[in-house]
Structures are given as C-alpha cells and as structure tokens.
User: Fold this.
Amino acid sequence: MSAKTDVKNYTGFRTLTFVCLFILYAPLVVVTIYSFNASPSITVWEGFSLRWYGDVFTGPESGKFKAAAINSFSIALIAATLATIIATSAATAIVRGGIFKTRTLSLGLISLPLMVPEIVLAVATLIFFNAVGFTRGYMTILVAHIAFCIPFAYLPIQARMQGIEDTYEQAAMDLYATKAQAFRRVLLPLMMPGIISGFLLAFIVSLDDFIITNFVKGAGVETLPTAIFGSVKQGLKPNIMAISTMLLALSIVMVTLSYFVSKTDNTK
Amino acid sequence: MAGGAATGGSAAADTYKSARHWLLLPSWLVLVLVVLAPVCMMLIYSFLTKEFRGGVIWEPTLAAYDQFFFDRGLFGDDPPKIEWTYITIFWRSIWQAGLATILSLIIGFPTAYFIATRPERTRALWVFLVTIPYWVNLLIRTVSMKFLLRDQGPMNDFLISTGLIDDPLRIVNTNLAVQLGLFYSYLPFMVLPIYASVERYNFAMSEAAADLYATKWTTLRRIVLPAVKPGVIAGCILVFVPSLGAFLAPDLLGGAKNFMIGSLIEEQFKGNAGNWPFGAAAAMVLLTMVLILLMIFARQQRRAEASP
Amino acid sequence: MKPIKRMTQTAMALALMASGAAAEGDLVIYHWFEYIPQDLLDKFTAETGINVTMDTYDSNESMLAALKAGGMGTYDVAVPGDYMVKIMAGEGLLDTISDGELANKGNIAPAWADPSFDPGRKHSIPYQWGSTSFSVDSDVYSGDINTTDILFNPPAELAGKINMLDAQGEVLATAALHLGIPQCSTDREQLKALNELLQASKDNWVSFNSDTAKEVLVSGDAAAGMIWDGFSAKAREEKASITYAFPTQGYVVWMDNVVLLNDAPNRDSAIKFMDFLLEPENIAAVSNFARYADGLTGTAEFLDPALATLPEANPHDGAGPGVFVEACDEATQAVYDQIWTNLKK
Assistant:
C-alpha cells in the first residue's frame, strides 16, 4: 500500500498546488478585503465598513448598475435557455442520428465559436450587423450571445448523451412508444444532469462576456461587464470592489449548487 | 476536438435518424447567420476600401493587407519595404501567449497531477477550489490583478513594509504585467484538461515502473507524460488561443502601449484609428493563424488515436 | 419539462421588461466621461419627465468612430469639440436647429454665438470651454514646468512616468506647438520631424490614457501627464502638489458643444435638453462639477466663486498662445493618421 501512494506523490507538487491556489485567490481576496474599507481612497485603509455595499444599491451610480444587472441576467437567462434547447436537439441528431454526410460539418459548425478568437467574433458580428442594418441594441447582444453559448451548452450534453446506451429508448420503442415519447420520457430525464450542466455553463459564459458584448451593444444598453469596464477605466473605485465581492459570492454559490446537483446524479 | 470522440461512439445509434435534419436545423440557422456569415462578411470587408474617418466604400482593393505587410513610408509613396510593426505586434502576441502557456503549464501540471492523486472524497473539493475564481468575471479578475500589482498597491506596500525592497516594483504597464494578467486569466483552463487526463491514467503503470527500479522522475517523463499528453495539449491550446487574441489584459495592465493583436484590432473599430478594412485584415490574419494551429492539433490527435 | 417552461416564461417576462425600459421615449445622450453631474440629469428628468440614458466616450475621434459604426439613429445628442463639430457637419451627421426652436438661444454669450466651426449655431449650442495642457506633480519635480519640453524632452525625474491623452487631435497639435510648425502642414520635412519627435519621445511615456488621466496623477502611477484644465483642478483637490502648466510654446484650447444628431430618435426631447442646458443655472452646475468655463451670459451668480481664481483657468503672463485643434483635408489627414498609427503601435 505504501508503494502505491509513493508513485503518486512528487516532491514540490503539493507546494506548487498551493502556489497556484494562492495566485488564483490573492487578487480576489485583496479586493474583497478592501471592499470593506471605510475610506473612499483605495490606497489608505481606514477601518471596516459596509458603506460601499450600500452605495452599490443606493449610490449615484446604482441606477446604471441596476439596469446593467437586469440586462446581464435577462440576456444570460434567455440566451442560455435557447442555446440549451438548440444544443440538445443538435446533440440528439449527432449522437443518435446515425452516420450521415453533414455530421462532421455540423460538429465543426457548432465548434466554430470556440475556435474563433473572441475578438474576431466580436468584430465580425459588428461588421455583419452594420452591413445588414440590424440596429445595435439589446437584441443584437441577445442574438450574439445565443450563438456563442451553443457550443458551451453542447459539450456537457453530448458527453452525457454518449454515456447513455440507446437500449433504453429501443426498449421503449419495442413497447410501442413513438420516437417523441421515447425522447421525452426516456432520454430526456436520463440526460437531465448534462442539460443542466450545459445550461449553467452557457449561463455563466453569457453573464461573463465582455468583448463581444462591448462591440455589438447599442446606445444606452449596458451589461454588467461593460458597465464595470466603463467605470474601471477611470480607476478602480470601492463600489466596484463591492460588486466584485458580491459576484465572487454568487459564483461560489453557483459552483456549490452544481456540485450538489452532480452529487445527486452519482448516487443514482 | 469533440469530433473525435463523437464519431468513435456507438456506431449503431440511429434512433432519431429520420428526424435528424430537423433537429439540426435550429443550430445551423443560428450559427450560419450569426457566426459563419459575419466571418465571411469580415473577409469581404478586408478587401474593401477604407472610407475617410470610418466605414467602408464598396470598392475592392488590397490596401488593407498591403498596409499590414508593407511599409510605404510616411507619405505613402516610398518604395515598399516590409512593414515590421504589425508583424512585430503579432510576434509579440505569439510570444506573450506562448510564455503565458508555458507558465501555466509549469504551475498547472503539478497542480492538476496533485489534485488527481488526492483521495476521491476530497478530489472534487480541490477541483472546485480551482474553478471558483474562473466563474468570477474575467474583467474583475484582471482589474483585481491590477489593483494588487500597482505601484502603491497592497503588494508593494507589503514588500516595502517588510524591508525586502526600498522602491515599489514598477510592474503595471509593463510586459510583465500583461504576462501575469494572461497567465492569471486562463490558468484554470490548463489545470482542468490535465486533471481529466491524469484522473483516467492507470497508476498501475507507474507502479510497474517503480518495480523495475525506475526513479519517480523518469517515470514521470517517460510514462506519465506520454499517457496524459492529450490533456496537456488541450490545456495548452485552451490557454494559447484566447491569450493570442486577448484584449483586456494588454489594455488594462499594459497601459495601451504594449499593443497586442486584440488591442490593435479593437483600436481600428472603437478607438481613434477608424480603419475598418485594416482591422478586418488583421482579424483575418489572426483567424488564419489560429485555424492552422488547430488543424495541426487535430491532425496530431488523429494520429495519436490511430496508433495504439 | 416543467422547470424549463417556467424558466422560459420568466425569461420572456424579463426580456419584455428590459427592452421596454430602454425605449420609453426618453433621451439618449452620448457624452464625455465624468463631465456632467448625475444630479443635473436627475433635475432634467424631474422637470420634464424624460428619462435620460447616457453612454460615454473618452475622445472626439472614438465618438466619431462609434457614430459611424452604426451609432447614428440611436443617439439624440453628442458633445463634440470645436473641430469635430465641423467634421461632423461635413459628414452630414448633424441635424439643423431651426430659428426659434431653442427658446433660450439668447443666453449664448456673444463671443460664442457665431463660431467658425458652426456659423449661426445651426447645429450646436456652446457647452463648456477650457484648455488642454499637462500637469506635473511638484513633489517629484520642482523645476520650471511651463515648457512642452516636459512632455517631449523630460527631465530625469519625470522620464518614464508621463501619461499622454489618447487623443490624436490634441497630442499632435501639442507636438506641432513644440516644434513650432503649423497644424495641417503639408511640408514633408516638417511632417518627418513631427514623426521623429513623437517616436523619440515615446520611450518617456508610460501610457496613453484619457480615462485615467486624473487617476494616474493622483495615485502616483504617473508623475506628469497631459490633462484638461478642469480635470486637473479636480486632481489637485485630491493631491495638492499637482500643478497645471501653461507652456511658453503654447497650448491647446477647445470648446465643447452639444449637437443635435441626424436621425435622432427623440428629437423633441433633445431640443428640450438643449434648452435646459442653455439656462445659466444648469450650465453653471456643469461648470461647478467639471471645473470648466461656460459659454452663456448671466451665469456668474450660480458659479462656484473658487472657479474664477482657479490657477488652471488663469494663464500666467509668460504663457504661450492658446490654439484650437484644426481639422485637415483628407490627403493631409492621411499623413497625420499615419503618424498617429506609428506612435501607437
């Protein structure tokens, strides 16, 4: 038994892991600490205070951030939902549709947003919308988000679906179920963890997006990242630190949630 | 990438054969209209004439690519020499992205290996510890890094107070800051694929090597590494490609002086320059580079799968 | 299926709410950053019931770029500088204001009522005016700062710690002043000299940034930097050692104007907003916040008394001439664009 653990442990790896985690968390932790700074100056520590959290919700810039947050979350919700639906139907065709001529092509098309660098996508979309006269605004952001969320939703769904034997559906159809029924009552429930993973992934990706959104957004429409960028360009202010801490907390919650979702699946 | 695995799946799975074209229709519709068509439009734009102060005139010309590769002097009428500036910017971006990838590898590989060799109960916890920062907005992470590193920021304050240095380390607005920013942005992308590969690795092989008196490091080099190569390569690509086209790190941390490709392209459309065909041309060059890289990777992948 | 259905319903509701909120027949303005106080916009909303949405930019050139990139038809008003008004008029981006549409037009001070960039004020109203020069942290360097050598040939204490504005017009104009050559020059030798000057000076500059022009000086990331006079006054409030310079070679002066854009989605609201800004009390609020000067009569009683004696607004005797940025013709502009590109890359 001791020989087994020996081959797994390499000196220095543990240290490097902690270095890695330290690097990942240091900036965020520092910002979190300073978000509680009572002083408006970001270089001088003056004591503990929750004023900036209050400022985010009631201060002079609160209206702007509130509108941006509503935009961000609504776009993320719609885009993730639609992307998940589209990705699910595409995955069904690719994984369960047999071998057909356009299969690799379809797969390539779905992976396209992942292969093209984000800045290229952003510029291309801007040019295209401009050329066809699609006025930039909320809808342009939404349409762009749906498109690049599809591959993110697709990956977990395909992975999950491949792991499910099609014998269940065959059995259902032997029992005179229609294809639609087999899909809805057999495949879909089995795929649910993959679909949920896909949805969460697409949701976060949409919420997080900056470059594409910054290029295709229209007058007066901001999402949370673009609003933060606009504010941060003039210097990091304490209320931004408060927002950052809140988003960090949100991400911890979401990740913990998805952890428990995947746990319940494993125990099945 | 995902393609290899998919075609290797159950060959007989054709349950929804009849409906498959309808099922694929929505994704085709959205992706062709919102991704493929725009990229084609961008290709077209790179061959159009620039309109004075922004926009395009629909007249075909090679001016944009010419500007990219050739220097015709300040007044446009010198004999063409090679324009090194943009090539330099691209080279600098490749170099920055490469360095960031190597750094991520040096720190990410041991981390991934370490996590994968933890007992199963705690493994998931480690994975989440690594992924939680990723879920925080990239913008915020970049800004936090800037806050930490600035001349009068916490890091310098700490180093000065402990007497390790006398003057603050000027990191922000240098290449180093951009490096750190890129590395910080995409580190989890390196860790996770390697972790996935190592997790599937059969440690019995390492044990066998140990029985044959191989040192641990030899085992690592000659047995473990080749076995987890797909994960390592995936991680490298997932860090390299986004770093190449990155915009936030060079913009916020580099002081708008350390121009990388992303900043160059952005400047054409949102900044002062207003040269759309040129921006489109630069974007096409970037896209071509990335696609070539991915094709090489795909070919490697196919070769790796073919050989037992 | 149920959770998906419920999510879709919520999503639709949110979408309706969000898109509805954006298009309530309000006013969409495109404005410089950190310039107009939010209180003033709130006052406008309170008086007229019109909601105001504002996007910001950090240079005349990027404003033009954004408008030309599909921004027309989505904004009602913008705030370009003097030379940019002329450019925009030439490009057909500005709507005409008929006589009598602006009730408060009479409030415009005679000096600003008929400028060369917009004769008769057909497309614009004066907003704020000021100068663009640079500031130095006197704690770092205590010598004479009233020369453009600070930017282009800096003393050792400042080398490598200078921030420049990310604004082509103003940077090139300042460089031209330093060399003593005219703006929009077509003399090849002069243009080459300009290019070489900028290339040589670049090593001494740490960044090109307009948004953080104030912050870098206050935080110490830069010891000197190009900056607008009002912005520098605000910097001095946070750090008393920041001193504004009036170089003997001359400096840039500008007037910002509020223009009515073509295809404005809410033209009536835009006119009301422009009338609102032509009231002395309201424009004084902008001056008090941004620390610039206004272009109307009758504002004295509303202005912060400190503004009259601001060192940033009162050039000393040895100061050089204040010059406006000039917009060049297409051929000449191409060369200047090339010089700027050479600088940024």
Chain C touches chain B at residues 59, 61-62, 64-66, 68-69, 87, 91, 166-168, 188, 191-192, 195, 205-209, 219-221, 330, 333-335, 337-342, 344-345 (CB under 8 Å).
